[in-house]
Automatic annotation (TrEMBL):
The keyword Acetylation does not apply. One of its GO terms (cellular component) is cytoplasm. It holds the Pfam family SBDS_C. Residues 15-102 form the Ribosome maturation protein SDO1/SBDS N-terminal domain. This is Ribosome maturation protein SBDS. It is found in: Cytoplasm; Nucleus. InterPro entries: Ribosome_mat_SBDS_CS, Ribosome_mat_SBDS_N_sf, Sdo1/SBDS, Sdo1/SBDS-like, SDO1/SBDS_C, SDO1/SBDS_central, Sdo1/SBDS_central_sf, SDO1/SBDS_N. Residues 170-197 form a coiled coil.
Length: 252
């Protein structure tokens, strides 16, 4: 990134990230510190002085050209410069080079693949896929990352997409429920309606009936509500493990 100078007082601006907003047919830009814009938008950074290199409003930061006062008033009214900077930070587009953009895309692509690998297994082996295998499957499926979507949202989309080409399922969650009044039959009937549920054990003692079962994590809330309804508050629901996978000859 070349060094940038303002035309009046020659303030040197380095490590610049530019945020641009078009309004009333004019372009307005502010010079920010790199890596601070995202922190500001995520409410991690709250001090605007830590974000802005200068409160000057430009029409071209790289050339050091400040916006004309009449253009600023027409677009933003009589707001103070700091308030205008806040609006540009909130609504403007962060400018990045082609190289930076590609680097961000590549990084997000790998993050999505990692999230999918962490959440899923090959159901034929009950083992997680290596990240490299997921990445290759994503490329074969022509998946393009969505920069404004969360990694979790994209991972859920990718899982559905990859089911068309490879055997892949969410790793199951192991749960335990104990019914203190032993009236568990209705719950078992409803539980069996839940997709991919598998009851592993049923234990009866003097005070309760206990089930250990596997479910898709996406059904957790459904099962929780079901337990409350069927037991009328007399059940204890626990998560034994969030992901059951086979490693070697054992399960983790």
């Amino acid at each position: 990134m070349p060094k940038i100078f303002t035309p009046t007082n020659q303030i040197r601006l380095t490590n610049v990230a530019v945020v641009r907003l078009k309004k009333t047919g004019k372009r307005f830009e502010i010079a920010c510190y790199r890596n601070k814009v995202v922190s500001w938008r995520n409410n991690v950074e709250t001090d605007i002085d830590e974000v802005l290199q200068t409160h000057t409003i430009f029409n071209n930061v790289s050339k050091g050209q400040a916006a004309k006062k009449e253009d600023i008033i027409k677009a933003f009214g009589d707001k103070e410069d700091t308030e205008i900077c806040r609006e540009i930070l909130s609504k403007g587009e962060l400018q990045v080079s082609d190289k930076e953009r590609q680097s961000q895309i590549d990084s997000q692509f790998k993050e999505v693949a990692t999230e999918v690998s962490n959440r899923c297994v090959n159901p034929e082996l009950n083992r997680p896929y290596p990240i490299a295998v997921i990445e290759k499957a994503m490329k074969n499926a022509h998946y393009s990352v969505k920069p404004h979507q969360s990694i979790k949202q994209q991972a859920m989309t990718v899982i559905k997409l990859l089911k068309e080409s490879i055997p892949i399922e969410r790793a199951q969650m192991k749960m335990k429920i104990s019914f203190l009044n032993k009236n568990i039959d209705k719950f078992k009937k409803e539980l069996k309606k839940v997709s991919s549920v598998k009851i592993e054990t049923e234990t009866v003692d003097e005070e309760s009936v206990t089930l250990i079962f596997l479910i898709d994590p996406g059904h957790y809330k459904e099962v929780e509500e079901m337990a409350k309804k069927q037991s009328k508050g007399s059940s204890i629901l626990e998560v034994i493990s969030y992901k059951e996978v086979a490693v070697g000859n054992e399960y983790l």
